[in-house]
Amino acid sequence: MENKNYVVVTDYIEANTGKDVSDALQQIINDNPHKTIYFPDGEYVLAKPICTPADPRIAVSLELSCFAIIKAADGWDSPEALVRMGGIYPFNSITIPGSNYHFKGGIIDGNGVANGISVDSGRETLISHVSIKNTQIGIHVKRGANNGSSDSDIEMVNVVGNNKENSVGVFLEGYDNTVRNMRIASVQTGILMKSAGNSLRDIHPLFIYGGEVDQSKSIAFDDQSWGNNWYSYCYSDEMATGFRFKGGATPIFQHCFGMWYSNRGVKYVGFECEEGKFAASICNANIALRGDCANRAFLKVSESGGLGIVENPIFTPENCDDETYKDYLVGHVVHRN
């Protein structure tokens, strides 16, 4: 590929050899500041992580062709992700040209053990149009340099995990991220958040039976923060718990959906508030509780009281074993057929 605006990795290394190319790729990154580094179709095996600089003066972006694969080598033993965005030369800026870098396209293959992509430093990092497979953690956004804010944007990403215990699609530790248009499967937890200020839209975690994951422990959206997060058109599919959050926190759920296509599970809960009083806002949520299952609830709350609301929920009350939702109901229940 002859394009002087891109640095093409196959001008320096060969794809599809099955050999570790992590050192060679890191050298290409180090030698080409302010360049987009392009991976043509083929497989690139890594025995250790590669890191991009967060410093805007030497930052790079990584772009992969549709069928370019970055894969963890057999015997991978690093706790870090295959690709660490901002993993070297940490920096905190949005104003210096080069501060907004990205990872785009291709396939990340964790080989059943590795994490996929992490955002270690920098701000307004973009991850888009990538298929992440066989990972323990698909994407990990770490605490950012801006008082914990990472301000990352994740969109149009598909994650299929390794179906192992404690597997996660997206793990948000840094604050103030946007995540949208994602499908996530074969994980215990779809989205795990330990931060606030995050906006989530059109996210679809799906539980797949098999592997090492206990269905009763599966959670589509696990919000462990004590602050504000926003959910819009998010969809829990076959996960035991759709949306779990802390008492006292004030997440907002708008037009969210949960359903179970089988009765093989042991828990069917749309929203669960733990460790305190319910203070969330749940508006127009559609929870398809089954009539042939036990342990069913639109809403479970660990402590009575609280000033949260459940506005115009859509579900079948006859299929609900817990009437807690009535304590917070605004409007009326819209009955599902």
Brief sketch in words of this structure:
It contains one helix and 32 strands.
CATH class wording: Mainly Beta
Largest sheet, if any?
17 strands, parallel
Provide the helix percentage.
under 10%
Give the uncertain stretches in residue-range form. none
**How many individual helices?**
1
Q: Within the CATH hierarchy, at the fold level, what is the topology?
A: Pectate Lyase C-like
Task: Tell the overall outline.
Answer: elongated
Q: List the domain count as a whole number.
A: 1
Distance N terminus to C terminus? 56 Å
Number of strands: 32
Task: Supply the helix-strand structural class.
Answer: mainly beta
Radius of gyration: 21 Å
Strand content: 35-45%
Question: Which architecture per CATH?
Answer: 3 Solenoid
Q: Mean pLDDT across all residues, rounded? A: 94
CATH superfamily name?
Single-stranded right-handed beta-helix, Pectin lyase-like
Topology:
Elements lengths: L5 E3 L13 H10 L4 E4 L2 E5 L3 E4 L7 E4 L3 E5 L8 E8 L13 E3 L2 E3 L5 E5 L6 E3 L2 E5 L1 E5 L11 E9 L6 E5 L5 E8 L3 E5 L4 E9 L12 E5 L5 E4 L2 E3 L3 E6 L5 E3 L2 E3 L8 E10 L3 E3 L2 E3 L7 E8 L5 E3 L2 E2 L13 E2 L3 E2 L2
Parallel strand pairs: 1-2, 2-5, 3-6, 4-7, 5-8, 6-9, 7-10, 8-11, 9-12, 10-13, 11-14, 12-14, 13-15, 14-16, 15-17, 16-18, 17-19, 18-20, 19-22, 20-23, 21-24, 22-25, 23-26, 24-27, 25-28, 26-29, 29-31, 30-32
